[in-house]
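User: Structure tokens for this complex, please. No commentary.
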Amino acid sequence: MDKKGRSNSSVMLGEQAVNRGAGGETHQTADAGYDTLTTQQGTPVSDDQNTLRQGARGPALMEDAHFREKIFHFDHERIPERVVHARGYGAHGFFETYEPLTDLTRADIFQRAGEKTPVFVRFSTVAGNKGSADLARDVRGFAVKFYTKEGNWDLVGNNIPVFFIQDAINFPDLVHSVKQEPDRDFPQAQSAHDNFWDFVSLMPESMHMIMWVMSDRAIPRSFRFMEGFGVHTFRLVNAEGQSTFVKFHWKPKLGMQSVVWNEAVKINGADPDFHRRDLWNAIQSGDYPEWELGLQTFDQEFADSFDFDILDATKLIPEDVLPVTPVGRLVLDRMPENFFAETEQVAFMTQNVVPGIDFSNDPLLQGRNFSYLDTQIKRLGGPNFAHLPINAPKCPFHHFQQDGHMAFTNPKGRANYEPNSWGTEIGGPREAPMQGFQTIAQEAEGPKVRLRAESFADHYSQARQFYRSQTSVEQKHIGAALVFELSNCETLAIRERVVSHLLNIDTDLAQTVATGLGLGALPKAAPPAAKPKMDLKPSDALSILKNGPKQFKGRKLGILITDGVDTGLLKAVETAATEAGATVERIAPTVGGVKASDGTHLPAHRKIDGGPSVLFDAVAILVSEAGVAALLKLPPARDFVADAYAHYKFCGFTQTAMPLFAKAGLPKELDKGFVKLAQPADAKGFVQACAALRFWDRPDGA
Ligand code: HDD
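Assistant:
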């Protein structure tokens, strides 16, 4: 005991053993039935609250091995974040094969109907740092590790089917340009700055991707509502060694959905973890997100007849030209037990393919196959990252790789080389010529050159096709995004250079952007690429809105309530929404909840300040006359309504909400996106209307 009666060790308090901190606060100890706290060496720790010191008020002692171990470990807790895709969120699940694909591939995963293969999936943004906000305008990574019975297959894709560049040698420059500018270290998680637009405007091959990134694809509502793509052309190889080209697609079962830009900006403030929370909540509540894997397969003849080079990652093959065939489903049903051990340490590598899947000569893919191994060695500290449980295959594996940092599964026995003559008992593994991975024997010849094929030269036709495939709402968003981004570029010449490319894509778009930027006159169009620009047929599959899900399932309704709320009406709305497969949150002036019309106490999920309407897909305003009077004095309540209106959301309301609508500046004549809830029977109709997700026919939306 010290002079103040504090203890440095456990004391008995009644029946319970406790440990005391400096402030005299108590901590329950192992003596009370907890596991014993130990050092990393397994030595039991008696006191984790006080460093060893010379006398109660004296200097700390070097001898305190437990303190030193704890602090040293803490000092080393961070590992280098991924140079791109630093911010990510992962989940476990399975892939289920629909039908055997034996004619196309010998990949074990596609041999048996109903085969379930464990997977780990990591979604990510690209440019932002690890702590950046989820709703940045950015490409989303969609990386899937299949733990197949013949090794790990990593399909390291994005939510956009094309890429900025054609050759991996440009990747460091692309990434440098989009990340923070090096002298000032900002802006992070944003492409809206000079360096990025300077680079892409000097790389016309990026223009197709730019159309996608300026579209709402780059601000998805959640990971659950976005598509995924393997991007490159790969090969499937069957048991006879015949190969078929393939492009991989992921289609979300709940349909695609994005937010609008003004909403994205506000979500980033209200909940920077919006996408993480969404995935976590969905999986924890048993509402498992699901995607279908689809294949576009084609032969050399198709490749030769296609308008573009199938090795060019800035091009896609429209679904109308080559349909996507579903071959299986991906279900995410389990969150990692520990974020760092699994999501942070997972190492995806494009070169992880299995027998039956092979690469094409896409120069971007070929470069990636080099980069990913290198990055994992750097990031995870050595060559043994495959020993980490998240990266280890789940099938038997035997090899002679040994030693290095953290080698904890070195091969056993004497033989650590082959060939050897030690026999099957101790001689270790051998090659399997028939079963093993075999690279497709493709002829290759020609001079060693640094040359881009002529067939890669048309940079505008598919950009134009993408733009012209969008609904007018989506086209408006692309124009607005370009104006926003370029308005954040300080250099006039860069703004003009981008518009000069847009003139090769669509003159109306170029004009819209030029006007939005206040350019005095249109610049000259960028020199056309070597190949002439083609007018391709628009493809509906490229639009999000033309493929609307028409369901409210998996979405979220926010209900703003006050004291005096009609309990029957509230319950009816909540029931209708949950029956439609949506989740519901109540928002109230205080998180403690409200006193309903029938005197019952109804708890709330959020206080109005922390529950803005941007967090919901649709809203309902169920308020009493007295309640609305109180809301009028709360700016967040006005924002709740004004934002829901500006973001084209469906809004159910009681007549009593009208003063709040007036205060929020809504028009007197409400549009059909506003559904009056006069009685409980109206709830179903409101929720049915919400299935359209947004009421786009609102002229003064954001
Ligand atoms: Fe990459 C990470 C997707 C081009 C080099 N990339 C990374 C991740 C995804 C992609 C989803 C995150 C994986 C995870 O969650 O851990 N990358 C793509 C796609 C590309 C692409 C779809 C084009 C079609 N990448 C690309 C090129 C290079 C890289 C051309 C280099 C030559 N990518 C990397 C990397 C990363 C990475 C540096 C950073 C962290 C990591 O690998 O594990 O190696």
